[in-house]
Design goal:
Layout (H helix, E strand, L loop, with lengths): L12 H9 L4 H12 L8 E3 L6 H4 L8 E5 L4 E7 L6 H14 L14 E7 L10 E7 L6 E12 L13 H11 L3 H8 L3 H14 L2 H26 L6 H21 L4 H9 L2 H11 L5 H6 L2
Parallel strand pairs: 3-4, 4-6
Antiparallel strand pairs: 1-2, 2-3, 5-6
Helix pairs in contact: 1-8, 2-5, 6-7, 8-9, 9-11
Length: 304
């Protein structure tokens, strides 16, 4: 059995969004939320509050593609997949929670009408302060641990922590979902599909999504935009701390542009390679920004 992977990777935020946002995936979304939240009563209904994908955001560097859900109980959940650590990640999670919580308040409404709002973060990296794969945070008194309010609840699920120090009996359904999201080969997905009906259903949905040419293109564009974003972010952090930084930054941007162009347009002709090699840093910046919106290779250089 091949160890390669054809299916799209749900750790990419847009693939995660497309996989769980579709009408045909409601049962999958209910299962995922049940696994994370462990509700006292079954989740029988979910409503997607952002059912349409913001196509402009696909190309926009650094934009978060979160999944906003209302449960049948009126409680709201903001779900995010994050593949890399971010300096202000915790602040952003709180901001997205606060935005969703505040949006409930309509003019003339009573504060008592506000319902519990939950933030769920799946992250493909480990946090040094937590050895657990699933952490739950609430507001409580520092010494007595008395909960101030149940209105705020934050769940952090660390995919790399799955299987480290915790047995399969610890949150078994969530363990399965984490293994599904963490799978690196199609053979791993096939093995999971044989273990549980919901995993078989999830694999079938991911297979169907992966066969959609538009979905694959959107995933490719999103991956390119994220690659550019993190390349620029890392370059900015290194700036001022390395010798020959200007030359190094230009070379890094030229390499990034070449990879993006090849991903979108295929093997580059020699004249395009020479243009990239001789472009200034400012020209490279403008070209990188135009890669995702360009329909033809020559459009990029002409507009600079």
């Amino acid at each position: 059995m091949s160890s390669s992977r054809y299916t799209l990777d749900p750790k990419l935020d847009i693939v995660f969004w497309m996989l769980f946002a579709r009408d045909s995936s409601r049962e999958l979304l209910v299962s995922l939320l049940t696994a994370v939240l462990a509700p006292t009563t079954p989740i029988t209904h979910v409503e997607l509050l952002n059912p349409e994908l913001d196509h402009a955001a696909i190309d926009e560097k650094g934009i978060v593609l979160d999944l906003r859900v209302m449960l049948g109980s009126g409680e709201q959940v903001d779900i995010e997949m994050q593949s890399r650590p971010h300096r202000a990640l915790k602040e952003r999670i709180l901001y997205y929670w606060a935005r969703l919580y505040a949006e409930q308040m309509k003019r003339g409404a009573e504060y008592t009408e506000l319902r519990r709002t939950i933030g769920v973060l799946f992250q493909n990296f480990s946090s040094p302060e937590s050895p657990r794969f699933h952490s739950v945070f609430r507001i409580c008194e520092d010494r007595t641990r008395v909960v101030f309010s149940d209105q705020l609840e934050l769940h952090v699920v660390e995919l790399p922590q799955v299987g480290r120090g915790e047995t399969e009996s610890a949150e078994p359904l969530l363990m399965l979902w984490c293994k599904f999201l963490s799978a690196t080969t199609d053979s791993e997905l096939e093995a999971l599909a044989m273990k549980h009906p919901i995993m078989n259903q999830a694999k079938a949905a991911l297979d169907e999504l992966s066969e959609d040419p538009r979905a694959r293109q959107q995933a490719e564009f999103r991956e390119m935009s994220q690659r550019v974003y993190y390349t620029e972010l890392n370059a900015a952090r290194r700036e001022g701390r390395q010798e020959g930084k200007a030359e190094g930054k230009a070379e890094g941007k030229a390499e990034t542009l070449s990879r993006l162009l090849a991903l979108k347009f295929g093997e580059l002709p020699d004249d395009a390679k020479e243009w990239v090699k001789g472009a200034s840093e400012a020209e490279l910046d403008r070209a990188i920004d135009r890669v995702l919106s360009a329909n033809q290779l020559d459009e990029i250089a002409k507009k600079l």
